[in-house]
Amino acid sequence: MGSFCLYYIKDRNWWDCVPSKGSGWASKSICKVKDEMKEGFELKHWAETGYSIRDGYGWLQGDQPAVRWTHWIWNKFNVPKHSFIAWLAIHDILRLRKRLCRLGICTEETCLLCGSEPETLQHLFFSCRYSKTCMTNICNWIGLNVRVCDIESAWKDWTRGIKDQVKRNFVLAALTALLYHIWLIRNYSYWQKAVIHPGKLYKVIRLEALLSVS
Ligand SMILES: [Zn+2]
């Protein structure tokens, strides 16, 4: 690595350096990153104003549309593993059976919790009678009057009319925990061939939601 730097930088402009054919993988990788970041350094004047990883990452990402659900998914009361599953859900990239069937990976698309409908995102988390029972239990406990919703509107429905920020965060953490545990139970059902009673799930979610604010 040291000889590489001395050889290429000496008497030459670093930004114009091109690795020789005989250069190692590391040397070529460094030059590749340098070429990718060159435009950013020119446009943002980082050489003069100073460079930070945050600035570089932001520039590489480009302008991203703002999403309102970020306050739900990354709510500070959420348990990180709950947030991760909720993030996968809102991007609709969970490996649900209907999708797996379409890809030819799975031959059975029926919901593992109720066995009566194809397992889609909407069904598993919001329309399945098992999930509805869990949701009703949690909502009754918190004092929410939530109707059937979907992944896009759930966090808005659950926090509608709640002004207190702590209670909003608590409600969002409960919703995130609900999605996580439904996913967990769904996977448990697949491997253990058994579905845990919704009453037990309710107790676990209630406990985790309370712990999130303690
Ligand atoms: Zn179902």
What do you see in this structure?
The chain is mostly helical and 214 residues long. It folds into two domains: 2-61, no CATH class; 70-213, no CATH class. It contains twelve helices and no strands. The longest helix has 28 residues, at 165-192. Mean pLDDT is 88; it is low at 1-7. Bound molecules: zinc ion. Zinc ion (ZN) is lined by residues 111, 113-114, 117, 123, 128, 130.
Keywords:
binds zinc ion; 214 residues; mainly alpha; 2 domains
Task: Indicate how many domains the architecture comprises.
Answer: 2
H-E string: HHHHHHHHHHHH
Approximate strand percentage: under 5%
Mean pLDDT: 88
Computed structural class: mainly alpha
**Backbone CA Rg:** 25 Å
Poorly predicted runs of 5 or more residues: 1-7
Number of strands: 0
Oligomer: single chain
Can you give the helix content as a percent range?
55-70%
Bound molecules: zinc ion
**Dominant shape:** elongated
Number of helices: 12
Task: Calculate the terminal CA-CA distance, rounded to whole Å.
Answer: 50 Å
The main sheet comes to: none
